[in-house]
């Protein structure tokens, strides 16, 4: 009996909600732990000068944030500010849940930023980024490799010398190169190196071409003929091998470089090699990560949000983030900052970005990734020929796009 | 008269709170989903969706998907049966062994054996995936060094990747069945065994005629619900196969729901498929319950 | 002599079987401990050693100093305990009714309990969110406790019913002849005998709230209300998961479950036999 009363009182207690007097602004983001810490300290600085405002930052995992924001915003709710990679913008603006930012900020403000940081969709600005990157580059362990290869031929040549079996037990103890090569995102760089791109100006997929076939063959050769990469390598294994110093090079994105430094590896970063056959640079995809505003926002909150965004996007805060997590900022003025020009990793990162291509933000991109994956992996598994795979990828992505847009 | 009335009140008190909560929490989402499944809601029609009849259902049955949805359906059944079988067999065996009077250190054994249930799934699933790695995983290390067998490319073959997911899920699931079986074994009076011994029964007779019938009422709910949960358990398959590798072959039926809803925003299609999955499970439960006559009393 | 030999055979086989499965159970968990002790955020490593060479407790320290881990523990504990108590109370009573009485709608009710589990959870997210908003239950303990209880009840009710089914009604009859009413015969006689099933109900209710993620992610939007699974998820990010923190948190998350199990297993193996039926 007493127990029942106890439970009842718990329920009653939990019904009460605290009344907040300050205006609350919520930011949903998918930042990593180290980036969050920086955001939190910057928010706290903002709150000191704006005592009537409470800003809360909430982490949401990328996929969840996207679907969660769609669900919430369509229902008229959701955070006031959402921060994430710009490929969400295509979907968000299709569903009409984010505010065009060119109506909020003036031209002068917008011109401060690197054009690659501004995401437009159907002629309106929907996201301003504070970090540019998400790009892959060639990371190498200086202890094992002094000069990184500049071309793919060099890669294979140096690679063969670096892939060693120290104790002759048939198992390779050191690889030249490891990376998450089974994931299409990590393969695109070679596709671009051979001259291909994922879609045309009308967002139709362009996967069935000679560049794709060559790129697929190249991937297979790296593993089967040149044998400089392991047979099975997903993201975690590649990471582990490189951190265990069992690989001279790794292709990984800017989010991971500081963890290698922390693991004690003396790393260098270099732009991805040039493909000898075409003379083109391997171009990884770049995505900015930035802020967008919920369309459901009230006018009074909008004013606060504008101030908050101006603060978070300013030079000082961007520089702080750059110093702590090595991301490329988006304020043009910072590119001549000595911190930048003196830091080897940053300089190379910048070089790589200049050689990269922006990832398309349209929803069709998802369909293309999803279509590419199984056929790409089929080539790696020997189940399909490159020609067949390129053909199937193209057909499959067209079908998936059609289904999605029905 | 009075007694029956009191009895009915008593029953109502016992059941009503549970039923109310369940109906409130379940009926609305179900209904909503059913309506969604009859609509054309998708990326292009997210605000202006309308009812279009059973089109989505037709799409589920007729679109040629990559991989083939019927093959995946079959795989899902295989997945469910294999998992449940090993969960129950291992769980019940461990419970029987632990239940013996003369075993020492029962508490320690029990506690260690419950660890797979207690550990957070994501990190342990990824650990298992690492254990299946061809070159560096401990499973191949044991195969080659301890048993002299050739290493297996667990995560690269279609059937072996599936097997890896099954092994991981069996590992995660047997403690649950073990605990239930342990509890169930307590309900069997010792003097029944003693009486059987006097009558000259051996361990097989004891097992078949006393243990199993009295385990049944307690294990059946666990098995039924275990089947339903396993059928819809996307987590492990997804994590072990890194999203379906190789080549999008390692999937179960709910993967399609997830992909349609979260990757392609085809909510109408996903809702229809969910309703179909629901009907499949409903059919299974009805026939299973009928066969084992669980809704009735035992003694 | 033959009996002794069989006995030793049986015992040896039993111990070997138990040890084998203990080894299988514990190895992956040790790996998780391993991850928590590694510096520099390593999920996998190519070495097969059990404890890393440069093991450090810094992840555990960071967990308590840099992350609001204590808040998550507090929230999870509160929610899980309430759900466990509610679950035990509601399931023990409802299960009893289903076991002992015949009434209109019994079969349907039982079936509908099962039915609630059959729907793929992915699709329930959207209507659940809308319902939570409409009822004002978003961001509330009440909302999540109701949902968790609703999730755990079906199994628990079925479980209790199944267990009650193995207890002969003659026990209650005997009690009532001795002067107990319905409630007393339930409370004083049957419930203690059903303690193993109560333990299972308690454990299951606890686990389903302690480790649940999807519903929590929908209901608890404010970070002050986060439970452990939400906190754990926040260590993840597409390619930059903080495995050290994740591992440390995972190890700590396991501890209350193990303690609860240790405490409750006394009643799981109660040995309260039904010798009372004889004669």
Structure explained in plain terms:
- The complex is a heterotrimer of chains A (406), B (299) and C (279).
- Chain A is α/β, with parallel strands linked by helices and 406 residues long.
- Chain A is 45% helix and 17% strand.
- Chain A has helices at residues 2-15, 33-49, 62-74, 87-94, 107-110, 152-162, 188-193, 210-224, 235-243, 254-262, 299-312, 315-325, 338-342, 344-355, 364-380, 386-404; strands at residues 23-29, 53-59, 81-85, 118-121, 124-133, 136-141, 175-178, 247-253, 267-270, 274-275, 280-281, 285-293, 357-358.
- In chain A, the strands form three sheets. In chain A, strands 1, 2, 3, 4, 5, 12 and 13 form a seven-stranded mixed beta sheet that branches. A four-stranded mixed beta sheet of chain A has the order 7-8-6-9. Chain A has a two-stranded antiparallel sheet with strand order 10-11.
- The longest helix of chain A has 19 residues, at 386-404.
- Chain B has two domains: 35-64 and 265-299, no CATH class; 78-251, MetI-like (MetI-like fold), CATH 1.10.3720.10.
- In chain B, 73% of the residues lie in helices and 0% in strands.
- The longest helix of chain B has 36 residues, at 2-37.
- The radius of gyration of chain B is 24 Å and the shape is flat.
- Mean pLDDT of chain B is 86; it is low at 295-299.
- Chain C is mainly alpha-helical and 279 residues long.
- Chain C has a single domain, classed as MetI-like fold, CATH 1.10.3720.
- Chain C has twelve helices and no strands.
- Chain C has helices at residues 2-37, 58-65, 69-100, 106-115, 121-135, 141-165, 170-177, 182-193, 195-210, 214-219, 228-233, 243-268.
- In chain C, α1 runs antiparallel to α12, α3 (69-100) runs antiparallel to α9 (195-210) and α7 crosses α8 (182-193).
- Chain C is flat, with a radius of gyration of 23 Å.
- At the A-C interface, α1, β2, α3, α9 and α10 of A face α3, α5 and α6 of C.
Highlighted features:
heterotrimer, B: 299 residues, mainly alpha, MetI-like fold, 2 domains, 13 helices, disordered C terminus, C: 279 residues, flat
CATH fold-level label of chain C: MetI-like fold
Q: Label the structural class of chain A.
A: alpha/beta
Q: Which ranges of chain A are low-confidence, i.e. pLDDT below 50, for 5 or more consecutive residues? A: 13-19
Uncertain regions spanning at least 5 consecutive residues of chain C: 274-279
Output the helix-strand order of chain A. Answer: HEHEHEHHEEEHEHHHEHEEEEHHHHEHH
First CA to last CA of chain A: what distance?
58 Å
Computed over alpha carbons, the radius of gyration of chain A is 24 Å
Give the averaged pLDDT of chain C, no decimals: 85
Fourth-tier CATH superfamily name of the largest domain in chain A: Periplasmic binding protein-like II
- Indicate how many domains the architecture of chain C comprises: 1
The arrangement of helices and strands of chain C along the chain is HHHHHHHHHHHH
Count interface residues per chain for the largest interface.
B-C, 104 and 108 residues
Count of helical regions of chain A? 16
| Reported CATH architecture of chain C | Orthogonal Bundle
